[in-house]
Batch of 4 targets.
Target 1
Amino acid sequence: MHNNLGLLIKLQWMMLIALTVTVNGEYFKPFNVSYDHRALIIDGQRRMLVSAGIHYPRATPEMWPDLIAKSKEGGADVVQTYVFWSGHEPVRGQYNFEGRYDLVKFVKLVGESGLYLHLRIGPYVCAEWNFGGFPVWLRDIPGIVFRTENAPFKQEMQRFVKKIVDLMREEALFSWQGGPVIMLQIENEYGNIEDSYGQKGKDYVKWAANMAVGLGAGVPWVMCQQTDAPENIIDACNGYYCDGFRPNSNKKPVLWTENWDGWYTTWGGRLPHRPVEDLAFAVARFYQRGGSFQNYYMFFGGTNFGRTSGGPNYVTSYDYDAPIDEYGLLSQPKWGHLKDVHAAIKLCEPALVAADSAQYIKLGSMQEAHVYRGNGSICSAFLANIDEHKASTVQFLGQSYTLPPWSVSILPDCKNTVFNTAKVGAQTSVKVADIEALSAKHSSPKLLMIQKEEPFMSESWMTLKEPIGVWGDDNFTVQAILEHLNVTKDRSDYLWYITRVYVSDEDIAHWNENAVSPSLKIDSMRDVVRIFINGELIGSAQGDWVQVVRQVQFKQGYNDLLLLSETVGLQNYGAFLEKDGAGFKGQITLTGFKNGDVNLTHSPWTYQIGLKGEFMKIYATDNSDENLGWTKLTKEEVPSILSWYKTYFDSLGGKDPVVLDLGSMGKGQAWVNGHHIGRYWTLVAPKDGCQETCDYRGSYNSEKCNTNCGKPTQTLYHVPRSWLKPSHNLLVLFEETGGNPFKISAKTVSVGTVCSHVSEDYYPPVHMWSHPSYISGELSTDQMKPVMELHCDDGYTIASIDFASYGTPQGSCQTFSTGNCHAPTSSSILSKACEGKNSCKIEVSNSVFGDPCPRTVKTLAVKARCIRQPSSTSRYIGLSEL
């Protein structure tokens, strides 16, 4: 059996080397991609593929190489991305492939890294992106109905899809040209809404498939969530679990296009967290039960810069609880534990691709094995315990195995367990701003440590008032309530509705006599409305098509009623998106008048699109201050509504990601050096709905392991380093509700604490099984021991060991404490091995620490502090032969 694992490893490396060679300036030797019922076939060989979801516009081009490299290091073979139509064609017929939308550059970087690319053209993408990725001008084409058997829509869709396919072909980026693109996608989760369109929806699916294949891309096409995908299109699964999914033809492989490793977040919402033990379980079960391609949605989530966030009401951060966080830092233990499961699956790949199907063995009432056998003695197995509560000891091929609840053990040689999904050996990297958010039993990887903080100087702020109501010559008046998007075309979040109301002496007397006040009633509104009377703000409301009723106070005579309608991201999901608007629906009425209600719906309304400062681009670095009216801001002037603020700041030292802490502000938008970093809003999440402990066992949903209750959903906003200058960086804010800019600070984010918790009965690191000493037989399985590894980020070293205990330590990371059993040498051994190093490894065994309590399973728990210093070589204690 030992020789079987060595043979599997050799076959795996031969396969990888054959498929990833760069020759004569090409990313790969030109190769064909096809498929059978088992897997994608790349250059004639079946492959088990792991894909990392990265959306290029949610990062800067300067970030792309590092994100791709970290994905590859984490075990990815493929990068997957949508194509964002609204970003590439913001104006009909005018294309944008520059900056964050330089799709060709992104694809080439993926190829240069030796990874493949899955390009999901859509062009509908959902993705929590504004309007689902559709450009808003699309809804104005006469007679158009999106995503159905509709000639105007099909013409525009085909034109854009062809544009992208032709672009990939012209740049020689398809696999048969030596490029990285191995697969494409047409449409996106259409099966979820297909019934809304009846027979026209079914006809549209066939048209979309034939149109896509007819473009001659030369690689397979996918439709996800599409059970009626035509024979020439692979239908694929999206969800938290896809191990039970089967395509609609036995000629197609089992593909998982979206493994939801987290979830998106709304303003005023809690932060979803998916435990890595459950995520690894879902991944292992997928490959165990016949899956062959799995993509993480997202591997890197990134940032919704500008006004790209969809919704309504999705936050600017698209962190998604992904293995690589919004800033490009590793989220541990998620990244590390997934790296281990990927390595274990790769050890099984020769057997997985050799077998047409698995042998199923029932091991217990809720325990089962799937065995894959290849030529000769090649054999790999997955042992699963799907019991949510109890561990189970099972017999498999004459040996005994203990399986934790809700876990999968991976045996690349059908004998040795190299990985179990419930046993996390990867370190936890703590990026902590609020220690209270880290429970003793639930270490969330979504916590931030502020390494350096630079508050802005109070005397440096300038301010400028935004006019209330009409400010430009392009306003117009009609006797109707117009739909928000029909007026703005999404050029701005903001639209002023202005009318005049006459109040008679009799009305005033009526209110005084009856001690009542009139009310403004709006039948239906989304997303935000601010109500002004005679220039004074008298109330606000927010919601998704909700009724608004507000008491109002008028003076005798003519009164100006102003409504500021605001969008906070356009709808990105659902049928008939072209009909979904914003602003107001139904009637707008004044109630409580002496002679009855006053219907304002057909009164003369004046419309003013956007903000004066927005259209004058006062946030641009090349915009002169002359005649703009900026004045020095004093503390007595805050808070103030509808105000512009600006200041200058120097860039922070080092290379760590930079954020602005806008927790002192209300709601608005921010720009740095002319770059729109996104909307901000300090809405607070409900105080309830978060779990004290997060139990990974059992099916996950987005409400299961929430964090951040009772706190603002988002206070930190990413400012990419490439957008900053060494000094004199311009920050401009538009504040709607009256925040305090004097308390804004710029910060850098880094990993300040790393922790690890490894037991002596844990498995050796997966990479050890492919070490030459093991493959050659010089090192037996009995000689391999569990290893604890600590890593600081690049450029950081381990400054101190703040806790170390080999024995029975309690708690987790920030709450570690010694138990009844403790080796007194723990701290000194760890300090000697790790301090001053960027990384270190320690064998978890009695031979290193001594045996403080015989006949007891010991655990090594370590907490270390990282600081920025020149790094030195790492040290490995205990396995000198490796």
Target 2
Amino acid sequence: MKKNLFSGALIAMAICLVATGCRQAEERVIIPSPIESAVTEGKGYCITSRTSIYATGNDQKTVAEYLSSLFESAAGFKIKVTEDKNAAIRFIADSTVEKESYRMKVDDKGIIISASDRNGFFYAVQTLRMVLPPQIEASEASSSQEWYVQAMDINDGPRFGYRGLMIDVARYFLPKDDLIKTIDCMAMLKLNKLHLHLTDDTGWRLEIKKYPRLTEIGAWRPDRGDTPFYGRRNRQEGENCTVGGFYTQEDLKEIIRYASERQIEIIPEIDVPAHSCAALASYPELACRNVKKEINVLPGLGGRDTEIIYCAGNEKTFDFLSDVIKEVAELFPSEYIHMGGDEANKFYWQTCPLCKKRMKQEGITHVEDLQGYFMQRMSDYVKANGKKMMGWDELTNSRVPDGTVIFGWQGYGNAALKAAAEGHKFILTPARLLYLIRYQGPQWFEPVTYFGNNLMKDIYAYEPVQDNWEKGYEDLLMGVQASMWTEFCNSAEDVTYMIFPRLAALADMAWRKKGTSDWENFQKGLDNFLTHLDVKGVRYAKSMYNIQHKCTPADGFVNVNLQCERTDVEKRYTTDGSEPNAKSNLVSSDFPVKESTVINVASFKNGKQMGETLSLKIDFNKATGKTVESGNKDIFLLTNGVRGSKRQSDFEWCTWANSDAVFTIDLKGTEEIKSIGIGCLTNYGMGVHKPKSIKVEISDDNKSFKLYGEREFSEQEIFHEGNFVEDIVFEGEKTSATYVRITAKHAGLIPENHFMRPGQISKFCFDEIMIK
């Protein structure tokens, strides 16, 4: 009798860990989720040194040898690969099984795997890998470990053909051995595409034999230590460039071979026409003639230097890129070459004499279409080398070259649908959900990076195919990709910390069938996967266990909401200054705070603290808990008693971008006032600065206001360099009021002479009104 557990969901695998008999020792759930699976009655099978694998043909034998190699490292014995049909593990070719799919049956006689291609056999082995004890990942053999597999039946296969990860090795050069280790972790998750972002303003990482200066010069930038990416200054004259590195072509052949053995296709990206300072620092003659400054490899944002891009009017540019594409095409077996096409600033193109001449020759009237011309030539070169071009969704701003695959990244990736409307295939990697550079948990605990949060739970719940899509779009969707940009990474451990465990959510979403999500079981499968990473020594984040707060003012008190991404934990807290433990107060719902309090809270599972302790300080003043009238949806943050950090995206800053602010606090009665303060953030690298002026007025009736204090700031005070929080305090004669109105004037554009974000619109952020 079979016990059916899930259909299109996850499979609970009981692994038997003792040699004396098959007994349920530990539940293991695998990810990605199989289509159909069942744990069956019976003893299951124990893999030993006497076990052999029946395999015929090169594809089967290659996968069988891979399975044997796992045991050679972890168990100290090899599983013999044979053509003896009596072997306990049998690989059976079955043309009725769909591509990349497999069927697997385990009982006390052995393991039968059926598939129609190498991919299917390989993914079945990954399922075995994930149901075996995590010591299967060990590099040193254990003589005491038993290798039992529970009796089970599985029928499985992926939803999407493209299940990818992009790693930016240009901002941070990920060493070869670390990249190889990451590839192996991808294989465990049945991912099949690795998109390597090999070139950018910050580094050229690929050896091109015809152009050696690309790696002699372009692979190296100045050392800026731990300074955040957005705070790094450009190279100074005479400064040595010591940070970087590159892959030789032999390195890449090894990486490609290793990935191919794990059914992972590596897609190279050569980003053009922008993100090209590393190439142009190496060969400055390829930049526009009107570039009068020295071109350098950029260590950070680069200021106005990112406006320097390949010259579209210079025929030498196209000769160079044609040569580069030829070498790339010869090196990478993939049928695709990604040519970027994103974020190209046309500042120099507009006045470059060669670019203007090119536009006239080609009948181009708009500079955006000059990029269309540029990318069409790239497509022609790619096709001439037997490949297909890929590009970012900015390509839809002009005519998309025939056959180009578009990556939808901006916002929710919807720009890719413009390409789909023209019949182009596309891949979704929306920045708002699948960019792994974003924070993966409560920002108070996370290393500094950009923007807001992309939580694992949100990635897991993402449904790429939307109900409002036009007919035919779904057929053009190749799949999904998580994108790991490395601006803020300074080590390989930084990279894996940001990738894992969120990549597991991407993998599950890309594999499982639509409408079959199960967050509760995914958490169990994730825990199983992470035990494998532990044995492999891979650093990953535990942010999912940390507590996120939301404090909301309400009738003079503050309502406290404490959430954890994990739903299988208890949240326990203290208010007496002590650390929480497994017996502390249980958070069961929102609760009110009526006076200054410090709440220490953490998540617990089976009596063990799982996440870091959040120390939430709520300070009361006469404005705390009171109503604020404003059109800004986040205005409640000004009176919730919680101060913001130096990160403008930590959900404690109320932000105004390119607009003035006017808001009124209702003190709910006449209050004596000695001073009025407001917390203000400066984050020079992110364009956050003081407003031009702040005016404070008071009133008894919310109609007639009188001035309490006013302050204007000089340009130097507004656009001061640094990242800090300051309280702007107004003190006057002792008075009383019921209403306080604050008006802040926007400072406008960041001055052109400023290094960080010149000419961009500034924004200002307030965190708390303090009335004493």
Target 3
Amino acid sequence: MSTEEKSAAPRSLAEALRARDDLALAALLRSRPDLVAPVPTDLTQLATRAGTRASVVRALERLDRFTLQAAEALAVAADPAPYAELLALMAGDAGDPEVEAALPRAVAVLREQALVWGGDDRLRLVRTARELLAPSPQHPSPTGLGPTVREAAAGMSPGRVQGILGETGLPSTHDSVSAVAALAGLFADRRRMAALLAPLPAESREVLERLVWGPPYGQVTHDPAAHLRRLLDLGLLLPTAPGTVVLPREVALHLRAGRAHRAPEPVPPPVEAAAAHRPGIVDATAAGQALTALDIVEELLKEWDEGGPAVLRAGGLSVRDLKRTAVALDVPEPVAAFWVELAYAAGLIASDGEADERYAVTPATDEWRELPPAERWARLAEAWLAGTRTPGVIGGRDLKDRALSALGPGLDRSAAPEVRHRVLALLAALPEGAAPDVDSVLARLRWERPLRGPRQGQGAEEDLRSRLARWTLDEAELLGITGRGALGATGRALIGAPDRPHAPDAEPEGPGAKLPVHHRTPPASAPRSPAERAAAAAHAARLLAPLLPEPLDHVLLQADLTAVAPGPLQRPLADTLGVLADVESKGGATVYRFTPGSVRRALDAGQSATELHAFLARHSRTPVPQPLTYLIDDVARRHGRLRVGAASAYVRCDDDATLDEILADKRAAGLGLRRLAPTVLAAVAEPAALLEGLRAMGFAPAAESAAGDVLIARADARRTPPRAAPEPVPDGPPVPDDTLLTAAIRAVRAGDLAATTPRKPAPGAPGELPRTGAAETLATMQAAVLTGESLWIGYVNAEGTASQRVIAPVTVEGGFVTAYDHTADEVRTYPLHRITGVAELADDGA
């Protein structure tokens, strides 16, 4: 390497960043968004921020397993290390074609994220990353390697070091430094090390094998056995503390055949397809489940339409109320929690905020109900994909050992949107119609983010990302994003995946079918902007709409007092039928049952018998059965014969024989009835209790107003004040958009120009802001106006913040200087009294 090339090499991370173009800086700020909040003043500050512990930890957490392995190898390599040394540590003495092919990409990623800088001949891992990944007794290296011979022998006596040289057959030296260097050279020589290890007994070799892959530290007694004594005499084990020995790094690398890792993983594990289905079946299954999802959410909203359960004092839904909701929806409790959280994430339910705080339906629900079914589903799917609230943790406990409840605090998991999108993207990379093997999906996620889960040997508990992935697969099936485990066309559109050709018709179908391993790179996994998500959801809705059945305007009435809806019903028909009959069963077809109570409910809502007959005749494809006609007429004939009003309550009836029957009934004893007139009974009970009591006795009373008019018992829908859907909790700073990146890079470049522009020597310490008197400042400014030269100034703004700038003065008058500010790249005016000093730039400056 020439002298000029050596001088051109960057001497610091700041210089390496300074050599990058704007595209490379934008890639850095996009991959590490914490570096741009707030915008650094110059590239030196950017480099300093990139080396802070918190930022480096976050960057390391986002590396894939092989790139992290490369960083770990650099942490135990020389500093700086040539690329050849890193390759030897990763591929070993025998070499590995896959490692050799993948390592350049890993080094490029580390460079892009400013974790490594320098040319291929001088690769440097940033100091903070080296401290995090380098081995120490308190924090063993992930590679399992111990300290070098030089580091381990630092506390040994010179005589002991010379004794080791004699045992290994090396000539003695005059000082410990050269002795340690000779010993390190021996251990690094593969041929001489093989000769040194050959005569060792099997017990000694077994000790080395136990330590070679880490941890490299072991315990010895005061009087070790002969096979341990031989290892100590040869320096193959070096003492680090009383009773503690360590296997030197050079010895371990020889025993490992030069590899820093037991098993480098240059290629991501493929996502295996466990079963294959025809794409049309997948889409139809997903569409059917999407329709079921809409039915369940609407049933939940209907259940809470008149006011939902109370809010716990600590927030959230009680266990009892969740059980009631599960029974009402006819689903298990964990699934009920998912639907409740989904409706909350979509802004359809919320707390009413009143003194007696309860959950209720929001005004946005009315607008949502008017949308076509496909668009209603897209709203739910979009809210699920972007939400950070995680129903899967409900029933667990937080860090303060408090129970986590549905709709309560503590359910946000910032990684959830990224994991959901990534899992669906992995499914999109499979052949269309293929359902994935779950274990292969989890293995792929662990390879992509190894630091987000427990490291090897640190416990068997499944990491959060794996649990999120399992929940994602289950929830996507419930929501109709997947069908039979495979991603449908609407699911692909939802994540922005490109359309793919269908799998061949000859592919097998069923859970036992095996597909070839698919290596194609999945779509990007980063969550997108709200506008992009909305556009993708709209596209998914357009694809889903043709797959959903058209709402029907008819039912099939049967002689057993049931009505069968062979598909989804139009909303007016469904609403009226939901009052007139009770839902008996759901599925591909919904079965409604007519009972005296359901008919009375319709009459209470203001319908007449004539209107009910006309309604059924209009919407039935079969003749109205005679038993149903008789049922409606019978209930209508008895409906309203008894009138209940406020006395505290009374019963009025034109047929005094009916009142006699009521008084003679033992079940009326609790109502406190007494006759006021031949056609009037007074009651102690409240009107509502009196109505329920008489209905339990088989009568069909109607409530009446103070004027004697029948009261129509329509349920009052309860709505919260306008509520916004819960905002997702971001996983760290948001990724900056192109506009912010452009402005940030421009500001950093301008600030760096002011900080690095050469200037003539000035009084004061190097790097300090210039200090000049008012007269000298004014004279220098006026001279620069005449000559057109640029100046370096120190400036203190109104808030007292000091900064340095490079300006080209244009005019000086009235105590102000108007100049082109190279730092801000615009013309600005500065008060002269706020300029602390001025200095001329050097001849090779601006």
Target 4
Amino acid sequence: MKNTFILLVLFISFSASSQITGKVVDNKNNPLSFVSIYLDGTITGTTSNNDGEYELSLIKPGNYTVVFQFLGFKTVKKAVKITSFPFQLNTKLTEEQITLNEVYIDTKENPANRIIRNVIANKKKNESKIQKFTAAFYSRGLYKIKNAPKKILGQELGDLGGGLDSTRSGIIYLSETISKISHQKPNNFKEHIVASKVSGSDNGVSFNRAQDVNFNLYENTVKIGNEIISPISNYAFGYYDYKLVGSFYDKNGQLINKIEILPKRKNDRVFNGFLYVVEDDWALYGTQISVTGTQVNLPMVDVLRFKQSFNKSVKNNAWVVISQTIDFKIGLFGININGRFSSAYSNYNFNPTFDENTFGKEILSFEKEATKKDSVYWKSLRPVPLTNEEVTDYVVKDSIKVIRKSKKYLDSIDAKNNKLSWTFPLSGYSYSNSYEKWDFNINSPIADLNFNTVQGWNSTIGMSYFKTLNETGKWMNVGANFNYGFSDKKLRPTAFFGYKWNNISRPVLRFSGGITTKQFNGANPISPFWNTINSVYFERNYLKIYEKTFANVSFSREITNGFRFNGSLEFADRKPLVNTTNYSAKNIANREYTSNDPQNSANFSPSFTSHKIWTLNLGTTINFGAKYLSYPDRKFTVYNNSYPSIYVGYRKTFGADSSQLNADYIFTQLRQDFSLGNLGNTKYRIKAGFFLEQKNIAFMDYAHFNGNKLAISPSGGTTNYFNLLDYYAYSTNDKFAEFHGEHNFKGFILGKIPLINLLNFHVVAGAKGLFTGDRKPYTEASIGLDNIGFGKWRFLRVDYVISKGGINQKQQGFVFSLSLFD
């Protein structure tokens, strides 16, 4: 065993030293980062790092021709004879001399348009040349900050992992991933991570996935937050103008055209920059394109820059990506971050053997001990060498990590943070034991101060204890809440206990009990905050509640990927409540508070008879076509937007004082959110249900529908409520169906109108309908503007809504949505 280990170390050491190493610079001796370096006749190689340094691994000495390729620079081929390793080979690249052919100038059609039309016409042919492949993938993520503030909104920012220098500048995130990828068109993709590393992190799990950076311009749209229109999409000429900058010949004598892409409208979801196109093949040779954070719906991002380099595979006459960089700049709250995700593809195999078991629901997996690889292993596998700055960051943060995991350090940090602050009434209080991994929290009674006409001003003080039991998702949580109403003078205590086993199937068991107030609609359509504002200042008490003394047990877990089960059993003693106060900050003429009876606003007596009852809830969520990512300590479900998500539920109320209160209720929900490319995004939600027998059940057990009487819409998504419906006007103990749908045109409409398109507002059209067995239908239609705001702050949406049906038959009005409250 010992001899085997020694031989293994010697082999790794030899492999690490069997390299061509060097530095690539321009004419001014400035380092060139992410130059593609490979052996002539192959598409496998390496790339230079941010300092221009590279390492190209070889198997044995011999005669080789090394190719240096970089967009905007002349490709260089160097023939070398290597007798021993390591072999030093430095290279200087000169800028490409791009010339504009006069023949192109004399043609009647814009020559750039002719080239792009040929690229679009040949997309399917070029894509068909690569139906399947395997490849090695390497990715590096790097975030650097400059002059970081010490505080943001009064909160200490800290040292961001220990990577800051005296000017509070430096690397705040550094990660690497090496993986094997398999792809088969149209949709089969699988990645197996061989090694993963994060500077300063104990678990080493990097989120640099190959599929996340698989930006294919041959598709009509590229998903980057929004759907960005590709400059070679089938409808590209509706969004771009093109200009031929010039042409040059590559290392194999093929003519390469440099095309500038010019958006027709500034705020469309489009790219800026340049495409490099191979004449006759009509394939991409390279891209240098950018898109703003506004266009990709990431307001904190100033700009994203993409650079791709392609190489020709002689075997199948196809151009494939060999390297890619994504540079970005973030600016928010005085924080300025520059980042780069760089990727390199190598060892392509275009004739792999795939069988029916190659691709399944698991699209990402980790090799055992992938996050535990040592520096020797990384040295032998890393295709792009680290810069000196990156080497230093790993060394410093690995040292800091050891210190910051120690009990002494964690106790010292806790001692500082556990001090009771004078802001306790507003901020609450937290006590942590980081080494033992538990926290104790007391919430702020002032922050949880609300008003309703039953309890008057009321507040809740809560205490909770949370304990992390292992690194794979096991935890327990226990706590108690004490709510007191200053008008009804009643204390209502509740307690809870929760336990979770893992982050794979995510099984969670909860126990809870006590005395509480509940809205008659268990979906809680009226927030205590907005009810407080509307009650105290406008004398509109929309919140209707009852008291419940209860004991509840619930359990949920994933049965199989995409299928999640939940169930609960509860015993409750339910009692009616009445108004006890008419307090308001201002008396409004001809307006008085309504009663606490949701069915009769003029009934100030108890709205129902007290009763005891059992409630059983069972349900399952089904996500068709879902796949998953397997990380070392958890699993993430990847939903397929091509299919809707379905929820099917059953509720049984039984054991009541009166048999009339016992009922069986079956319900379902269907929802989906999907893209229509350049036309925008569509989403819908359909709900339906019925009672096996229509009986005079308790009103809180009716089917309720989320209404809204506020100018500000509720949280939870615009397809989860009606804009103008009274909260309990359509509640039913009969069958029902409801529909919510809307389409956001993004920039498809307003983006084409001069001057208006500078505002970057989005048109949204919606329709809603409610149909019950005992009432006439209720419908809504709306038209609105989304993405309203300025600069990076775009959080407002305004809808004009017209409704028909309900108490008032016909209504109309404006509804405002704030993304801050969603």
